[in-house]
């Protein structure tokens, strides 16, 4: 079995080559190799630490060594410097373990870089003269975009927040036959029904479906949707089921709930999650909402949730690698899909029904601006309520949710 440090280097190589989320690669490796809790913790801290601080780590590598590096040696140095300068592990362990990760021809180079880093730690850790996007490891285009949208101070706070480890927050499942009592003090400053889990998640809670791991910001869309018992509700972009769970929890059961998702591969996980959570929706099926809805769904729903695919810019603290994958054009492309999902879903509302549009993006282009453009093009629809959670202000994931209703003739 590989050491967590060696596994971290392989995972970073696999991440750079493919399109798999870092969290999934870590999970896959940890369960295949049956890692102990402490090895898993170290692997997680190193891989997530390298991905969060990638730009800063590369800046340090550039300061410590001039000249080209092959991909593997760079990843080894990133893993080493992350231990030394980000995780602040003892110098001797960080240097020794990192040198051992390299093949013999590059060990001398790794040794020299790591020793120099240990000797100049204080000056390397002084980030005061660095451009903020390097110090906080974000791409320039996002930094510039957020500066325009939120201002310089808030952008610094946001970037710093994105680099903090995310707490594990659980929502109690009121539909589970057995109750979970949150440990004392674990729900201070969290909304009712939520509590924080420090340390490993008790597997019993997961297998018995007494909790679901989710950030409190996910509740905004469901509070606006306000599901009522007996209603027909569509969760159009439902996988893996976090919001479907909140809908069922709020409405008292999965009765009347239809869940769809365009990605068939995500449906088994959605089914498993809901079944574990003691929820039996009316139906779970594949549908691409950029295409016209089947006629059976026209005018069929009291309420529709569109938790649309988005840029995920509100959840960089959890999705640590997205900032390196996302391109400005992706945001424009996503808005086309979001608009189209909205257009196709509206005919499925009953007269007087409500639609909640939600994202975990903090980009106005995917949120307010998109809906403003929509109501300008469709003057018979209005936005009746909006919520926006911003990480740097609310201390939660970023989230946006808004209610759309058709204007009545009295408006
Ligand atoms: C933000 S995630 C939904 C998260 C889910 N609501 C939850 O709380 O667990 C967006 C989902 O939309 C799905 N999706 C993407 N394009 C879609 C489309 N055109 N029609 C339906 N679903 C789509 C994706 O497969 C993904 O599962």
From TrEMBL:
PROSITE patterns: SAM_MT_RSMB_NOP. SUPFAM superfamilies: NusB-like, S-adenosyl-L-methionine-dependent methyltransferases. This is 16S rRNA (Cytosine967-C5)-methyltransferase. Keywords: Methyltransferase, RNA-binding, S-adenosyl-L-methionine, Transferase. InterPro entries: MeTrfase_RsmB-F_NOP2_cat, MeTrfase_RsmB-F_NOP2_dom, NusB-like_sf, NusB_RsmB_TIM44, RCMT, RsmB-like_ferredoxin, SAM-dependent_MTases_sf. Pfam families: Methyltr_RsmB-F, NusB, RsmF-B_ferredox. Residues 130-411 form the SAM-dependent MTase RsmB/NOP-type domain.
């Amino acid at each position: 079995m590989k050491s967590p440090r060696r596994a971290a280097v392989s995972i970073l190589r696999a991440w750079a080559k493919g399109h798999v989320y870092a969290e999934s690669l870590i999970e896959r490796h940890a369960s295949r190799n049956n890692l102990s809790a402490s090895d898993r913790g170290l692997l997680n801290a190193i891989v997530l630490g390298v991905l969060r601080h990638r730009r800063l780590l590369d800046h340090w590598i550039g300061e410590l060594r001039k000249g080209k590096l092959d991909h593997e040696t760079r990843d080894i140095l990133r893993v080493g410097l992350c231990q030394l300068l980000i995780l602040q592990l003892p110098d001797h362990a960080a240097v020794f373990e990192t040198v051992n990760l390299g093949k013999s021809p590059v060990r001398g180079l790794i040794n020299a870089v790591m020793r120099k880093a240990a000797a100049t730690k204080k000056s390397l850790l002084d980030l005061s003269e660095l451009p903020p996007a390097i110090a906080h490891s974000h791409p320039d285009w996002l930094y510039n975009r957020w500066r325009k949208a939120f201002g310089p101070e808030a952008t610094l706070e946001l970037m710093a927040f994105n680099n903090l480890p995310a707490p594990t927050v659980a929502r109690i499942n009121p539909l589970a036959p057995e109750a979970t009592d949150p440990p004392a003090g674990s729900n201070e400053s969290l909304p009712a029904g939520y509590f924080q889990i420090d340390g490993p998640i008790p597997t019993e809670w997961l297998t018995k479906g007494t909790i679901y791991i989710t950030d409190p910001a996910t509740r905004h869309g469901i509070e606006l949707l306000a599901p009522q018992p007996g209603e027909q509700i569509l969760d159009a972009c439902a996988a893996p089921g976090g919001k479907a769970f909140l809908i069922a929890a709020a409405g008292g059961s999965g009765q009347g709930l239809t869940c769809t998702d365009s990605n068939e591969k995500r449906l088994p996980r959605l089914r498993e999650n809901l079944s574990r959570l003691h929820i039996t929706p009316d139906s779970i099926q594949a549908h691409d909402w950029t295409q016209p809805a089947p006629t059976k769904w026209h005018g069929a729903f009291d309420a529709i949730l569109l938790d649309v695919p988005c840029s995920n810019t509100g959840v960089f603290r959890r999705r640590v690698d997205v900032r390196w994958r996302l391109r400005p054009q992706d945001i424009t492309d996503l808005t086309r899909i979001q608009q189209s999902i909205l257009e196709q879903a509206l005919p499925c509302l009953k007269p007087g029904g409500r639609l909640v549009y939600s994202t975990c993006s903090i980009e106005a282009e995917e949120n307010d601006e998109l809906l403003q453009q929509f109501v300008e093009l469709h003057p018979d629809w209005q936005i009746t309520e909006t919520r926006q959670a911003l990480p740097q202000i609310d201390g939660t994931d970023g989230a946006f949710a808004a209610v759309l209703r058709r204007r009545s003739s009295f408006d």
